[in-house]
Amino acid sequence: MLINKKGATPVDKQTIIDKIESANTALGIELGSTRIKAVLVTDDYQVIASGDYVWENELRDHIWTYSLDKVWEGIQTSYAKLAASVTEQFGVKLAKIGSMGISAMMHGYMPFDKDDNLLVPFRTWRNNITAEAADKLTKLFDFNIPQRWSVAHLYQAILNDESHVKDITFLTTLDGYVSWQLSGQKNTGIGDASGMFPIDEATKTYDKQLLDKFSSLPEVAKFNWNIADILPKVLLAGEPAGKLTAAGAKKLDPSGQLQPGALIAPSEGDAGTGMVATNAVRKRTGNISAGTSAFSMVVLDQQLNKVHRDIDMVTTPDGAPVAMVHTNNCSSDINAWANIFNQFAKVLGISLPTNELYEKLFDASLRGDQDAGGLVNFSYLSGENITEVQDGRPMMVRKPDSRFTLANIFKAQLYSAFAPLKIGMDILLREEHIRTDVLVAQGGLFKTPVVAQQVLADALDTPITLMSNAGEGGPWGMAVLALYASDSKGKNLADYLDEEVFANAESSTLYPEDESVQGYEQFIDNYKEALPAEIEAGKSMKLN
Fold first, then answer.
1. Which of 200, 324, 347, 502 pairs with 214 at a CA distance of 20 to 30 A?
2. What is the spatial distance between Cα 398 and Cα 416, in angstroms, rounded to a whole number?
3. Rounded to an integer, what distance in angstroms lies between the CA atom of residue 109 and that of residue 125?
4. Tens digit of pLDDT for each residue in 183-233?
């Protein structure tokens, strides 16, 4: 017996088989920074099968990228594992799917020519190479344009006089690209589109005045294309984005078992699917996702007082305005340090399961000093815009009188994972006085119970809630959006999530502890004081 997503009643195996065979299912695929994951859910939001593929970005010619070959190898592998799981569990082949959707790491740059050839390797969100363009566009638009946004990459390519720009006929993101290949339609969801070019809240599409300003720039006007014509069409959650074509089905499932015809929902960025997975699309709600990178999303009920370079203005999948704080680095350095201790354990002849290793290291951090003993860690595998660090260099620093213990090492690791996010969130909470009714966290860091959740509550001095589905994240959120596209039940997205998906959801909330809040503030003071050392390390190593 399986328990359905709402936690209401057991679901027997035959009922699930019937749903699979009648295509009362939805497929969500998310291309994350370190893993591609596919999940299949039934129409009651229960995950019945999944498959994944581990991958890493490559630094090629000083550009962080993923190859298209790896994109499709990962998607096909994830789907094949999922389909095999269906057969193994339920004794039936997965031939039909009711609806589906694609999500992926947001932003980036994928320009195509008239023959649908990718003109340059995919430039991911991780690249800090568009500072000049981002600054100029922010001043021109009076609207914050982050370096990772598609329009910043496009304009920087123009400023760099890159030869490929003249040949662009279509510009999209990673999820928009995959959805296009499966459906034949050049569109994307509004949340993803809002990371390409600013959105007009009233019209729910690209801001026409800003499109015109961009097109009027002399260095842009010389090209034969118009920015409005090369961007994907903007769609809202609940609208159809197309159907799975025969060619798309073959691309997803080379075995030929999967039939075409599944409804395709508007593709979304991982921020949008994270909001859905944490039921945070209603105004005055927010969510935080912590993984390779980290971001917070706060759905606004009021306008910000001014433009902030560290606050991105994006939207929910149904077009509500969102203040986003995005950091390029979060948990990768924790993983690196954990691996060192795992190797040490093996030297001693001890083999620990990964989950147990993290539990012991995280638990050790609880015995550390409230300020991490004066240790400061910079978990910067790449540059960090919020702290204006161009090139990342992972680095731990300490003073002669710092308390260098295992407990403090891992407390500093956890503290530093959230440090750039805290600096950005302070703008919203302390300068703009934005308030939320709930702030929900998700991501791999929270799989180890309590510890990271409490650190985040202390860092932001705000209660942090975890949903019972915190580990399922974006792929499940995308599958929910696919079900919403197939049948919204006549409800807006916020009501649909409240009343249909999360009606009986379990959650736990931790509150900030005064002593720990003070300790974290001391850590942040030390962090900012040591920041010049991180910047200089990046400069000196770059010179070498």
1. 324
2. 14
3. 8
4. 999 999 999 999 999 999 999 999 999 999 999 999 999 999 999 999 999
